[in-house]
Every structure is written in C-alpha cells, then in structure tokens.
Design goal:
The chain has about 110 residues and is mainly β. About 15% of the residues lie in helices and about 40% in strands. GO terms for molecular function: DNA binding.
C-alpha cells in the first residue's frame, strides 16, 4: 500500500483513496473516494512533484484511476468526469498532454 503523509494528519493517507486535488492559494483540498475532503497546508506543486497524478488545470490534479470519461473538443477545450460524476475542466495548455496520458487508460478492451 502506497501512502503519503499529509501535514495535519496523524496517520499516513493511502494514495489510492485520493480522487483529486483542488488548489486554493497555498492550500490544497484533498478529495477522497468516500466523498469527504480535507484541507492541507501544501500547495498543488508539492503534490505534483510527489504523486503520479495528472495536472489538468492550474487548480486541479486528478488521480487517473478515477477518470470515467475524457472529452477533447476541437483541440480548444476539454473536461474529465470523475467517478463521483464531478466534471473538471482541462485547461487549453494541458489538453494535449491530458489526452495522451488518458487515451490508453480509457480505451475499451479489445473484444475479439
């Protein structure tokens, strides 16, 4: 089990329980699989450097495991839908990278 120590949390947090991270100035709101969240005094940049998640917006990092759908519209806009039906926009400058990173993960299995 991979864990991460979050400032203000007495116990390490299982990384697989984190669905997405939302930046709020120098704080980060950590959204968990069970629908709860916590606010920690670590900026998104710290998480970007320590987790194998995908930055899709200046204020959002997602765990690709929990992406249900990715929409890429005319190369100018896009969004992801997470398992809790939350839709998060993907910024234009991160669209191409997001589409590459999510393409293989969201491909339907080849049924022959």
């Amino acid at each position: 089990m991979n864990t991460i120590h979050l400032i203000g949390h007495p116990q390490p947090v299982d990384i697989s329980t984190i669905v997405w991270l939302e930046g709020e100035a120098n704080y980060t709101r950590v959204h968990y699989r069970n629908g709860t969240f916590s606010i920690v005094t670590q900026p998104l940049q710290w998480f970007e450097n320590h987790l194998n998640f995908l930055r899709i917006h200046r204020s959002a990092i997602i765990n690709p495991t929990y992406v249900q759908e990715f929409e890429y519209i005319n190369g100018r806009s896009g969004w992801v839908r997470l398992i809790d039906d939350r839709v998060i926009p993907v910024s234009r400058n991160r669209l191409k990278h997001a589409s590459i990173m999510l393409a293989n993960r969201l491909m339907p299995p080849d049924i022959s």
